[in-house]
Predict the 3D structure of the following.
Amino acid sequence: MRYVRYLSNNVAHYGQVESNGSVRELSESPITGRPKVGASAGPLDKLTLLPPIEPAKIICVGLNYREHIKETNAATPEFPMLFMKPRTTLIGHGDAVVYPKISSVVHYEAELTIVIGKKARNVSEESALDYVFGYTAANDISARDWQRKEMAAGFLLRGKGFDTFCPIGPAIVTDIDASDLEITLRHNGEVKQHARTSDLLFSVPYLVANISQTLTLEPGDVILTGTPSGVGPIQPGDTTEVEIEKIGVLRNTVVAEE
Protein backbone atom coordinates (compact mmCIF):
# COMPACT_ATOMS: atom_id res chain seq x y z
CA MET A 1 0.00 0.00 0.00
CA ARG A 2 0.99 3.62 -0.53
CA TYR A 3 -0.04 6.37 1.90
CA VAL A 4 0.28 10.17 1.83
CA ARG A 5 -0.71 13.19 3.89
CA TYR A 6 -2.14 16.17 2.05
CA LEU A 7 -3.66 19.56 2.71
CA SER A 8 -7.30 20.27 1.86
CA ASN A 9 -9.09 23.43 3.00
CA ASN A 10 -6.15 24.07 5.34
CA VAL A 11 -6.72 20.74 7.08
CA ALA A 12 -4.27 17.82 7.01
CA HIS A 13 -5.67 14.49 5.81
CA TYR A 14 -4.27 11.01 5.36
CA GLY A 15 -4.84 9.39 2.01
CA GLN A 16 -4.45 6.03 0.30
CA VAL A 17 -2.99 6.12 -3.20
CA GLU A 18 -4.85 3.93 -5.68
CA SER A 19 -3.19 2.10 -8.58
CA ASN A 20 -4.52 4.71 -11.05
CA GLY A 21 -2.81 7.56 -9.18
CA SER A 22 -5.90 8.90 -7.46
CA VAL A 23 -6.03 9.39 -3.68
CA ARG A 24 -8.83 8.26 -1.37
CA GLU A 25 -9.29 10.06 1.93
CA LEU A 26 -8.67 8.06 5.12
CA SER A 27 -10.54 8.64 8.36
CA GLU A 28 -7.34 8.50 10.48
CA SER A 29 -3.66 7.60 10.41
CA PRO A 30 -2.97 4.19 8.87
CA ILE A 31 -0.10 3.73 11.32
CA THR A 32 -1.85 4.32 14.62
CA GLY A 33 -5.45 3.52 13.70
CA ARG A 34 -7.72 1.42 11.51
CA PRO A 35 -8.84 4.00 8.99
CA LYS A 36 -11.90 3.80 6.84
CA VAL A 37 -11.44 4.60 3.16
CA GLY A 38 -13.57 7.54 2.08
CA ALA A 39 -14.21 9.66 -0.96
CA SER A 40 -11.73 10.53 -3.68
CA ALA A 41 -9.45 13.48 -2.87
CA GLY A 42 -8.29 13.80 -6.47
CA PRO A 43 -5.18 12.87 -8.47
CA LEU A 44 -1.97 12.59 -6.47
CA ASP A 45 -0.15 15.10 -8.67
CA LYS A 46 -2.82 17.74 -7.99
CA LEU A 47 -2.66 17.58 -4.20
CA THR A 48 -0.55 19.70 -1.84
CA LEU A 49 1.48 17.03 -0.10
CA LEU A 50 2.68 17.19 3.49
CA PRO A 51 5.31 15.00 5.15
CA PRO A 52 3.60 11.59 5.11
CA ILE A 53 4.12 11.19 8.85
CA GLU A 54 4.50 13.40 11.92
CA PRO A 55 7.23 11.58 13.85
CA ALA A 56 7.89 12.12 17.54
CA LYS A 57 11.52 11.17 16.86
CA ILE A 58 13.68 11.67 13.77
CA ILE A 59 16.65 9.34 14.24
CA CYS A 60 19.53 9.44 11.76
CA VAL A 61 22.48 7.20 11.00
CA GLY A 62 25.86 8.50 9.84
CA LEU A 63 28.46 6.68 7.74
CA ASN A 64 26.26 3.73 6.84
CA TYR A 65 27.09 3.10 3.16
CA ARG A 66 30.38 1.36 2.51
CA GLU A 67 31.18 3.51 -0.53
CA HIS A 68 30.43 6.70 1.41
CA ILE A 69 32.79 5.56 4.18
CA LYS A 70 35.53 5.14 1.55
CA GLU A 71 34.65 8.53 0.05
CA THR A 72 35.17 10.28 3.38
CA ASN A 73 38.33 8.31 4.30
CA ALA A 74 36.67 7.54 7.62
CA ALA A 75 37.17 4.47 9.78
CA THR A 76 34.40 1.89 9.42
CA PRO A 77 32.04 2.31 12.38
CA GLU A 78 31.81 -0.56 14.85
CA PHE A 79 28.22 0.38 15.69
CA PRO A 80 25.59 2.70 14.16
CA MET A 81 26.59 6.36 14.42
CA LEU A 82 23.34 7.93 15.63
CA PHE A 83 22.09 11.49 15.91
CA MET A 84 18.68 13.16 15.87
CA LYS A 85 17.00 16.01 14.05
CA PRO A 86 14.40 18.33 15.63
CA ARG A 87 10.83 18.07 14.38
CA THR A 88 11.13 21.61 13.03
CA THR A 89 13.44 20.24 10.31
CA LEU A 90 10.52 18.35 8.78
CA ILE A 91 9.09 19.44 5.41
CA GLY A 92 7.29 17.57 2.62
CA HIS A 93 7.52 16.93 -1.09
CA GLY A 94 7.42 20.23 -2.99
CA ASP A 95 8.36 22.36 0.02
CA ALA A 96 11.42 24.61 0.00
CA VAL A 97 14.64 23.98 1.88
CA VAL A 98 15.73 27.26 3.45
CA TYR A 99 19.45 28.00 3.06
CA PRO A 100 20.50 29.56 6.41
CA LYS A 101 22.06 32.99 6.57
CA ILE A 102 24.72 31.74 8.97
CA SER A 103 25.95 28.86 6.81
CA SER A 104 27.91 28.85 3.56
CA VAL A 105 28.33 25.09 2.94
CA VAL A 106 25.05 23.16 2.73
CA HIS A 107 24.86 19.63 1.26
CA TYR A 108 22.20 17.15 0.10
CA GLU A 109 22.06 13.54 1.35
CA ALA A 110 19.57 11.05 -0.13
CA GLU A 111 18.35 8.48 2.40
CA LEU A 112 16.05 5.48 2.65
CA THR A 113 13.82 6.07 5.67
CA ILE A 114 12.19 3.51 7.96
CA VAL A 115 8.75 4.27 9.41
CA ILE A 116 8.06 2.46 12.68
CA GLY A 117 4.63 0.84 13.03
CA LYS A 118 4.64 -0.67 16.52
CA LYS A 119 6.20 0.14 19.88
CA ALA A 120 9.62 -1.48 19.93
CA ARG A 121 11.98 -1.90 22.88
CA ASN A 122 14.78 -4.48 23.01
CA VAL A 123 13.53 -6.32 19.93
CA SER A 124 15.64 -8.93 18.17
CA GLU A 125 17.14 -8.48 14.72
CA GLU A 126 15.13 -11.52 13.59
CA SER A 127 11.81 -9.92 14.60
CA ALA A 128 12.72 -6.28 13.82
CA LEU A 129 10.83 -6.07 10.52
CA ASP A 130 7.60 -6.90 12.39
CA TYR A 131 7.87 -3.39 13.90
CA VAL A 132 8.35 -1.61 10.55
CA PHE A 133 5.23 -0.09 9.02
CA GLY A 134 6.87 0.95 5.76
CA TYR A 135 9.44 3.14 4.06
CA THR A 136 9.76 6.58 2.57
CA ALA A 137 12.51 8.84 1.18
CA ALA A 138 14.34 11.66 2.93
CA ASN A 139 17.01 14.25 2.25
CA ASP A 140 19.30 14.76 5.24
CA ILE A 141 20.24 18.37 4.50
CA SER A 142 23.47 19.28 6.31
CA ALA A 143 25.30 22.52 7.02
CA ARG A 144 28.82 21.17 6.71
CA ASP A 145 30.59 24.22 8.08
CA TRP A 146 28.63 23.97 11.34
CA GLN A 147 28.75 20.17 11.35
CA ARG A 148 32.54 20.10 11.14
CA LYS A 149 32.98 22.66 13.91
CA GLU A 150 30.54 20.85 16.16
CA MET A 151 31.96 17.38 15.55
CA ALA A 152 35.48 18.65 16.25
CA ALA A 153 34.16 19.63 19.68
CA GLY A 154 32.41 16.28 20.18
CA PHE A 155 28.76 17.09 19.51
CA LEU A 156 26.27 17.62 16.67
CA LEU A 157 23.02 19.58 16.48
CA ARG A 158 23.10 22.81 14.49
CA GLY A 159 24.81 21.25 11.45
CA LYS A 160 21.85 18.91 10.98
CA GLY A 161 19.14 20.79 12.78
CA PHE A 162 18.25 23.98 10.89
CA ASP A 163 14.56 24.42 10.10
CA THR A 164 13.54 22.63 6.84
CA PHE A 165 16.64 20.37 6.90
CA CYS A 166 14.63 17.12 6.71
CA PRO A 167 12.44 16.78 3.61
CA ILE A 168 10.48 13.50 3.78
CA GLY A 169 8.09 11.87 1.30
CA PRO A 170 6.31 11.77 -0.98
CA ALA A 171 4.60 8.64 0.37
CA ILE A 172 4.99 5.79 2.81
CA VAL A 173 5.08 2.45 1.02
CA THR A 174 4.39 -0.82 2.84
CA ASP A 175 5.11 -4.47 2.06
CA ILE A 176 8.36 -3.96 0.17
CA ASP A 177 11.79 -5.52 0.67
CA ALA A 178 14.15 -2.63 1.39
CA SER A 179 17.34 -4.69 1.37
CA ASP A 180 18.30 -3.96 -2.26
CA LEU A 181 16.56 -0.87 -3.61
CA GLU A 182 18.03 1.59 -6.10
CA ILE A 183 18.56 5.05 -4.58
CA THR A 184 19.37 8.13 -6.68
CA LEU A 185 19.77 11.84 -6.05
CA ARG A 186 19.54 14.34 -8.88
CA HIS A 187 20.82 17.89 -8.39
CA ASN A 188 19.31 20.26 -10.97
CA GLY A 189 18.57 17.19 -13.09
CA GLU A 190 22.09 15.72 -12.89
CA VAL A 191 22.65 12.41 -11.11
CA LYS A 192 24.99 12.96 -8.15
CA GLN A 193 24.24 9.95 -5.95
CA HIS A 194 23.45 6.48 -7.24
CA ALA A 195 23.64 3.28 -5.19
CA ARG A 196 21.65 0.34 -3.89
CA THR A 197 20.59 -0.17 -0.31
CA SER A 198 22.47 -3.47 -0.35
CA ASP A 199 25.57 -1.27 0.22
CA LEU A 200 24.32 -0.40 3.72
CA LEU A 201 26.81 -1.32 6.42
CA PHE A 202 24.07 -1.82 9.02
CA SER A 203 20.85 -3.27 7.59
CA VAL A 204 17.30 -2.16 8.34
CA PRO A 205 16.62 -5.04 10.79
CA TYR A 206 19.94 -4.42 12.55
CA LEU A 207 19.23 -0.70 12.92
CA VAL A 208 15.76 -1.21 14.36
CA ALA A 209 16.99 -3.83 16.83
CA ASN A 210 20.09 -1.88 17.80
CA ILE A 211 18.30 1.44 18.33
CA SER A 212 15.55 -0.28 20.34
CA GLN A 213 18.22 -1.35 22.86
CA THR A 214 18.70 2.33 23.74
CA LEU A 215 15.29 3.93 23.40
CA THR A 216 11.70 2.98 22.81
CA LEU A 217 10.69 3.31 19.17
CA GLU A 218 7.08 4.43 18.86
CA PRO A 219 4.59 4.23 15.98
CA GLY A 220 5.38 6.98 13.49
CA ASP A 221 9.02 7.41 14.48
CA VAL A 222 11.40 7.50 11.52
CA ILE A 223 14.97 6.30 11.04
CA LEU A 224 17.04 7.84 8.23
CA THR A 225 19.41 5.01 7.34
CA GLY A 226 22.38 6.98 5.97
CA THR A 227 23.46 8.36 2.62
CA PRO A 228 25.44 6.86 -0.29
CA SER A 229 28.59 8.37 -1.77
CA GLY A 230 28.36 11.49 -3.90
CA VAL A 231 27.17 14.09 -1.40
CA GLY A 232 27.65 17.66 -2.53
CA PRO A 233 26.59 21.30 -2.20
CA ILE A 234 23.33 23.05 -2.89
CA GLN A 235 22.58 26.74 -3.41
CA PRO A 236 19.44 28.90 -3.46
CA GLY A 237 17.62 28.30 -6.73
CA ASP A 238 18.62 24.63 -6.92
CA THR A 239 16.29 21.62 -7.09
CA THR A 240 17.02 18.21 -5.58
CA GLU A 241 15.22 14.96 -6.33
CA VAL A 242 15.60 11.87 -4.18
CA GLU A 243 14.29 8.82 -6.04
CA ILE A 244 14.06 5.42 -4.38
CA GLU A 245 12.90 2.34 -6.25
CA LYS A 246 9.29 1.35 -5.39
CA ILE A 247 8.87 4.48 -3.23
CA GLY A 248 8.92 7.43 -5.62
CA VAL A 249 10.51 10.86 -6.05
CA LEU A 250 10.95 13.46 -3.30
CA ARG A 251 11.48 16.86 -4.94
CA ASN A 252 12.45 20.10 -3.17
CA THR A 253 13.76 23.50 -4.18
CA VAL A 254 16.24 25.63 -2.23
CA VAL A 255 15.58 29.22 -1.24
CA ALA A 256 17.69 31.78 0.63
CA GLU A 257 16.66 32.68 4.15
CA GLU A 258 14.96 36.06 4.18
Q: What stands out?
A: The mean pLDDT is 97. The helical segments are 66-72, 144-152, 158-161, 204-212. The radius of gyration is 17 Å.
